[in-house]
Specification:
Elements lengths: L6 H13 L16 H11 L5 H7 L22 E2 H4 L1 H10 L7 H4 L13 H4 L3 E2 L7 E10 L5 E7 L4 E5 L2 H16 L2
Length: 188
């Protein structure tokens, strides 16, 4: 399973890919890390230990804006909160209007091309952590209800226009997919 093991290098690639103009010029990347104390305070406020890949990201960059035109920025530590606290109406509308049956845990754990983003375990939606700002009806979420043995949380791109949740095993996998998508769009 792919995972980001060098956030400074990865974020530089993401910045260069998302921020390059038509001639390939890009402004220099400036990263500002969250402190260990700020991350610990977030975990205390949430009542939950964050997944290792996301903590590692925050220790490199306290949020990140260079994700291209499709995605809103990743939030700084002080703005991260449970999705139900930030977007309760969105959750309620999704649950009330969903015409798909709720998936079993096993059915939910399908990733890649075989998953149907419109069909996921609805009970998980209210448990997710919002780590990205909403942009054009899309947001980045982490799902603590699905964890690896290493403590990684499932990561989602939740969007009205998929519709639903495109799911990844980890935050690192989600970010690699974002970079891959940006690269493929630049080469069209």
């Amino acid at each position: 399973m792919p995972t980001v093991d060098n956030w400074p290098s990865f974020l530089a690639q993401l910045h260069d890919t998302a921020g390059a103009d038509d001639d390939g010029n890009v402004e220099p990347l400036a990263l500002s890390a969250a402190s260990s104390q700020a991350i610990a305070a977030l975990e205390q406020r949430l009542g939950s230990t964050l997944p290792p890949s996301y903590k590692s990201f925050l220790l490199t960059s306290d949020g990140f804006a260079d994700l291209g035109v499709l995605w809103g920025p990743l939030l700084p530590v002080g703005d991260v909160n449970w999705f139900r606290n930030r977007e309760a109406d969105w959750i309620r509308t999704w649950i009330e209007t969903s015409t798909h049956p709720d998936l079993s845990v096993k059915e939910h754990l399908v990733y890649g091309d075989k998953q149907d983003s419109a069909v996921f375990r609805l009970a998980y939606l209210q448990a997710t952590l919002q780590i990205g700002d909403v942009s054009d009806g899309a947001v980045f979420l982490l799902n603590p209800e699905v964890q690896t043995v290493d403590g990684e949380w499932e990561a989602w791109i939740f969007a009205n226009w998929f519709p639903g949740a495109h799911r990844y095993p980890t935050f690192g996998d989600l970010m690699e997919s974002v970079l891959g998508g940006l690269r493929s769009r630049r080469h069209r």
